[in-house]
Write a structure and sequence with these properties.
The protein contains eight helices and no strands. It has about 170 residues and is mainly alpha-helical. This is DUF29 family protein. It comes from Floridaenema evergladense BLCC-F167. InterPro entries: DUF29 (IPR002636).
Length: about 170
């Protein structure tokens, strides 16, 4: 990015504004890609814990906290600087979850579920992807409808509905 900034400065100083605008567009694209990488990282964390929850049929405080942190961070990252639009729109999550994340999350979760009892191929046969994606989308949709202040309560209300959620909240 440093070279792009040097080139941008030089283009402006030399009055090559169309070149400068092209560099600005390139920088915006780089910024968007970095934000999407961070969002995908938190999506993986979310999915790993939803997969663990589905297969083990329980919810630990650690898993609930990981899910909450992932959703809160996604909300913060996804909201553009103008505070009115998003990098990932509500109707774009399913494709992103299906294409980019689920298989990787299954492979990563296989190391943790029941202490690695299942390899990623065995776990892939067990996991109900449709259900995982539906739950993930429901949690992600909360980031569009709840303020940062309201989001933790809304998340807890949804986590209680997961397998083991009642036991977790009543611990």
């Amino acid at each position: 990015m440093t070279q792009e900034l040097i080139d941008l400065r030089k283009s402006i100083l030399e009055g090559r504004y169309s070149d400068a605008l092209a560099i600005v567009d390139e920088l915006e694209g780089m910024s968007r890609q970095a934000i999407l990488r961070n969002i995908k990282s938190y999506l993986r964390i979310l999915l790993i814990h939803l997969i663990k929850n589905q297969v083990e049929q329980r919810l630990t405080s650690s898993w609930a906290n990981s899910i909450r942190v992932a959703i809160v961070e996604i909300k913060e990252l996804n909201l553009k600087e103008n505070k009115t639009s998003y990098y990932v729109k509500l109707d774009e999550w399913q494709q992103l979850l299906e294409e980019e994340i689920v298989e990787n999350a299954i492979a990563l979760a296989s190391e943790e579920i029941f202490n690695g009892t299942y390899n990623q191929f065995q776990l892939s046969e067990i996991v109900d992807r449709t259900q995982i994606i539906e739950i993930a989308q429901n949690l992600l949709s909360l980031t569009y409808t709840h303020s940062a202040k309201e989001l933790p309560t809304a998340l807890t209300e949804n986590l209680i509905q997961l397998p083991g959620g009642e036991d977790w909240i009543n611990r």
